[in-house]
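User: I'm curious what two different proteins look like when written out as structure tokens. Can you demonstrate?

Assistant: Sure. I'll show them one after the other, since each token string lines up with its own sequence. Here's the first protein:
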Amino acid sequence: MPNATMTKFGYPHTAIRETELWSVQVRPKQPGFGSLVLVSKEPAQAFGGLSAAAFAELGTLVPQIEAALKAVTDYDRINYLMLMMVDPDVHFHVIPRHETPRDFAGLAFRDAGWPGPPALGEGPELDAAAIDSLKNEILRRWPSA
């Protein structure tokens, strides 16, 4: 059963990959090209409340996310933000950072916060077709297990 944070970020349409304890989803608002959310499926509202199994799955997912996003976006840096102020379920905003603009699916992506903190409210809002295109591109580049 999806939690409120997964649903807020468009689950199941935005889901790229799922494990038993995590959902990797396209972030509809794109402060950096290829922005994702990594949402825990556990009923925890604090990072320390996650199980050892959830932490173990992170150890597998993070390198896969970074490899796929590097291949798709050629990011310069990558940021993981765990804010949980509006959406209290444990989740990260995964923001590929890029000094120069990127183009994808007819959209221009400019990292408005570069070189400082990401500007989460900036960037294009992806429609369903652009979400599908980005999901497919990330899945195509997702490393084999």
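Here's a second, unrelated protein for contrast:
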Amino acid sequence: MKKLYKGIFAGIILATLSSSSFAESGNDPLVGKWKTIDDRTGYSRADVEISKKPDGTYEGIIVATRNVPGSEKMGICSNCPGNLKNKPFLGLPFIWGFKQNPDNPREFNHGRVLDPIGGKVYKGKARISASGRHLNLRGYVGVSVIGRSVTWIKY
């Protein structure tokens, strides 16, 4: 009987801890490590770590890169603009300036997205799936209709 009570007690503790960490991650659903998926090849090209800055905006930096089979792994952002030119991909700001939509906490707007291969910076917006495991990121020029969307997977 004591084992049964200990098992129930342990289950309650575990459930409490799980729900509290879920609640904490629910406050910042964008924060964490994401695996990028190239929309043209279907391969994962990089891992991006997204954090929330003190000003309330979100920034993602590249923490790992992979090459597409049959191509060389690129290490330097030779086409990047301004002070990002010729910087290593690792540690490179990839997305920045995203703000959480106060009306929908799963939406993030007013950001910028760097295409490290082409070196262009686009306007960006993002939306997290209901499960919190997928991020749909859209980079665009001018209006959102003219752009590209990619889906990332949360680690």
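A detail about the second structure: Residues 1-26 have pLDDT under 50 and may be disordered.
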